[in-house]
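Lecture 7, part 2: worked example. A protein chain together with flavin mononucleotide.
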Amino acid sequence: MTVKEAIKHRRSIRRYKDTPLPDDIRVKLAALAVECSCENVSIKPVFDDKDCFDTFLAHYGKFRNAFNYFVLTGRKDTDSDETAGYMGQKLVLAVEEMGLGTCWVGGTFSKGKCKAELGADEKIICIIAVGYPDEEGSKHRCKPMDKICSVKEEDMPAWFRNGVVAALYAPTAMNQQKFMISLDEDKVKITCGKGPFVKVDLGIVKYNFEAASGHEVIK
Ligand SMILES: Cc1cc2nc3c(=O)[nH]c(=O)nc-3n(C[C@H](O)[C@H](O)[C@H](O)COP(=O)(O)O)c2cc1C
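Predicted complex, written out as structure tokens:
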């Protein structure tokens, strides 16, 4: 599976198979977590934890057998939400290419029961559930292109259109898709609106755009 195929194929998976992940898969996931961590965002894998999703909201949100997850953390005095979105989506797509399912989770888990070890100056930004899917996931709903992009579809260069389509396939909190993409000569800008997790969403959307278009977004 290529990264473009992974972008289109990915859905949020909330129901997982009850079977433990094999050791070689755990090793690969742990290596990916290291690869996708950076100066401001640390990604920590947690395996076989039955508590983190044992909350009313998680059950209400239809999570089942979500025993494995990555915890994305940043420093308490720094806003690293966008970087967490960008690096986390790099991880999500690599995991999708391995044939596993994922779900970004900002609210419907217990921060208090989360098993990751945090330093005194570290905070949890969000987590990403991972495992063997026990469902297909819901069909991804996309806003019309003209609601998230200032360029008319007929005026878009092919690479730019690829990026816009990939941005529309990006997971966003509550599928809010509160972002706007613009093009000035060959410079791509993506901005976000207001709401919960919009900056995490922005990082995710930027990663999808760059991976599918091969063009960098202005930082
Ligand atoms: C930052 C972020 C936070 C999210 N938080 C939750 C959550 O707390 N609970 C949940 O069930 N899904 C959560 N999601 C998943 C979104 O609801 C999902 O990505 C969106 O509805 C689009 O569906 P899709 O991922 O299947 O395409 C979150 C997604 C993102 C990007």
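The first strand starts at residue 42 and ends at 46. Residues 41 and 74 are 5 Å apart (CA to CA). Keep this in mind for problem set question 3.
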